[in-house]
């Protein structure tokens, strides 16, 4: 999955939190009565035709009581600042403004990697400027991670590994992101989904994972527990569906993959022999091993 798709999923799953973090100056005017909905790309493509330039999903903020005019947030992730085209973004915003018949459009660009980028596009002649286009920039690598360690915004906590921090802070940054996920996201499926997001951008090596497990046992145990809750939920739902559809084999494979994920979180990279053992085990063995993870201190103890 690309960085663009990772952030597109993040914005779709947490639209309000994304606006609050990436467009804070405009988000102050959005109250609890506002409704935030994504604008479907298929709809835009159909209506814009050849002019369609696909960027990340725009978010429409509306007030159901009509007391304020709707506002459109165009949040775009750009991995490499050198590849960013301010002309393309300006085109897209003008198209959306015309299509949705609104001038209340807020362009936002989230830059993943460090680098310089144009901040303004001005078109004009000798006597005047006739088009002045700017956008809100959120360069993640310039944002101090420590400022968001206690944030109640889940999007901020998930992006801690993408922010600025000293090398010696790396494990604390990872732990704060994981703790934010555990505290702020109650849904087990999304917990597992965004644990992967944190892992991708933290990119801990095996030695760092060993130190992390020693230094932050509470966070490791929390992640193991919610993975187990997800496993149990999936087992219950899968068994119910399996009785109707006869897909017990699929259930077991799902449990095996979940157990492999738990084992990796607890013990780091797994030898191929352990993977083979899990993938060939029956449902009872998988359940028994998953119950031992919290108390086992070594991989061998899980499989004893």
Kindly describe this structure.
The chain has 304 residues and is α/β, with parallel strands linked by helices. It has two domains: 3-142, no CATH class; 216-303, no CATH class. It has helices at 3-13, 15-22, 24-27, 41-48, 86-99, 154-158, 170-184, 188-202, 206-215, 217-245, 248-267, 272-279, 283-292, 299-303; strands spanning 35-38, 59-62, 71-78, 105-111, 120-124, 129-134, 136-139. α11 packs parallel to α13. The longest helix is centred in the C-terminal third of the chain and has 29 residues, at 217-245. The protein starts with a helix and ends with a helix.
Key phrases:
7 strands; alpha/beta; five-stranded mixed beta sheet; 2 domains; about 300 residues; about 55% helix; two-stranded antiparallel ribbon
How would the blueprint of this fold be written?
Blueprint lengths: L2 H11 L1 H8 L1 H4 L7 E4 L2 H8 L10 E4 L8 E8 L7 H14 L5 E7 L8 E5 L4 E6 L1 E4 L14 H5 L11 H15 L3 H15 L3 H10 L1 H29 L2 H20 L4 H8 L3 H10 L6 H5 L1
Helix pairs in contact: 1-2, 7-8, 7-10, 8-10, 10-11, 11-13
């Amino acid at each position: 999955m690309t960085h663009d798709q990772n952030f597109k999923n993040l914005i779709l799953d947490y639209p309000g939190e994304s606006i609050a973090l990436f467009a804070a100056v405009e988000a102050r005017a959005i109250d609890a009565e506002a409704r935030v909905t994504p604008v479907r790309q298929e709809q835009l493509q159909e209506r814009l035709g050849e002019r369609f330039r696909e960027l990340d999903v725009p978010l429409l903020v509306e007030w159901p009581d009509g007391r304020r005019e709707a506002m459109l947030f165009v949040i775009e992730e750009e991995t490499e600042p050198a590849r960013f085209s301010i002309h393309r973004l300006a085109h897209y915003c003008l198209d959306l403004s015309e299509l949705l018949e609104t001038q209340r459009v807020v362009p936002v660009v989230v830059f993943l990697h460090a680098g310089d980028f144009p901040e303004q596009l001005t078109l004009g002649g000798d006597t005047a400027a006739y088009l002045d286009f700017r956008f809100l920039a959120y360069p993640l690598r310039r944002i101090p991670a420590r400022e968001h360690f206690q944030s109640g915004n889940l999007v901020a906590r998930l992006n801690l590994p993408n922010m600025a921090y000293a090398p010696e802070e790396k494990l604390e940054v990872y732990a704060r992101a994981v703790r934010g996920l555990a505290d702020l996201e109650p849904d087990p499926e999304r917990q597992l989904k965004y644990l992967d997001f944190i892992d991708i951008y933290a990119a801990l090596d095996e030695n760092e994972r060993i130190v992390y497990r020693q230094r932050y046992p509470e966070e490791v145990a929390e992640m193991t527990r919610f993975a187990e809750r997800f496993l149990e939920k999936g087992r219950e739902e899968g068994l119910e569906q399996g009785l109707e559809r006869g897909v017990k084999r699929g259930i077991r494979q799902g449990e095996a993959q979940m157990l492999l994920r738990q084992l990796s979180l607890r013990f780091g990279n797994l030898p191929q022999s352990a993977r083979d053992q899990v993938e060939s085990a029956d449902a009872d063995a998988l359940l028994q091993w998953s119950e031992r993870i919290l108390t086992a201190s070594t991989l061998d103890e899980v499989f004893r």
